[in-house]
Amino acid sequence: MTEQIVLPRSRHEERFIASEQLVRLVMRTASAHLQLARDDLPYQWLTTCYCDTVDWNVYRAAEEGAAVRLRFREYHRTRPEQIFGSEQLFLEVKEDIGDRWRKERVAIRSAEIPAYLRGESPMRIESRDLQRAAQGLVTAGARPVVVTQYNRLAYAAPDDRMRVTADHNLSYLAVPWTNNNDDAIPGRIGPVLARERDVIVEMKWFDELPLWAEELHGFLKQRAPLDRPSKFIMAMRHLLGKG
């Protein structure tokens, strides 16, 4: 329960939607230069629950290109039908500004979530400004609104200085969450809002790309659509009927 990942510096992030054939080429190249990511074990299910306020302040800020997001991430061998059913999961606070972002992530117990969402327990975030932003969202009434589920294959450089991921079987789901006064967790997820037919490829890096990665990035830009919105934005568009 002591694991904490802090990325104090911002890093670049670009995402593409690609065919399975294209993804195989991309990930074969990545595997020749990077190691399998430590946390994202192949073929396991990632379930990410995103929070927003009643006025959709986080979503509107994200659409404008700058937002702080509060989310919870779980890892499972099989696809779960509930959120917050794991004994341990990860609380993440992520700030996006254009194609750059920074994130802090801390392991917590699921039983702690209601107290966090009610503002009864301070979040153990090292970055002062990210902690203030996250607590501000809680004060504004942030609560779970959408969930994404997918299988991820990820390759990463040491210290996560570069990362290439491919997300398969991506689904966007709603969360029938009434309010933060309820202690009843785990909570049901669904219905399904939408599913992606293709694969989401993401490249994330600090500083300059090595030559092989620069060439891979250029290849992706030629072969796959640019400016793919984040999973959170896509989920919210589907939730609000804008997808």
Tally the helices: what do you get? 6
Per DSSP E runs of 2 or more residues, the count of β-strands stands at 13
**Strands in their spatial order, largest beta sheet:** 2-8-7-5-4-9-10-13
Report the sheet with the most strands, covering strand number, pairing sense and barrel closure. 8 strands, antiparallel, barrel
Secondary-structure class: alpha+beta
- Uncertain stretches: 1-8
Mean of all residue-level pLDDT scores = 89
Q: Quick one: overall form?
A: globular
Q: What fraction, in percent, of the residue positions are helical?
A: 10-25%
SS strand fraction:
35-45%
Query: Radius of gyration from the CA trace?
Result: 17 Å
End-to-end distance, in Å?
38 Å
Order of SSEs, N→C? EEHEEHEEEEHHEEEEEHH
How would you explain this protein's 3D organization?
This protein has 243 residues and is α+β, with helices and mostly antiparallel strands. It contains six helices and 13 strands. It has an eight-stranded antiparallel beta barrel, surrounded by five helices. A two-stranded antiparallel ribbon has the order 6-11.
Output the keywords.
single chain; 243 residues; alpha+beta; 8-stranded antiparallel barrel; two-stranded antiparallel ribbon; 13 strands; globular
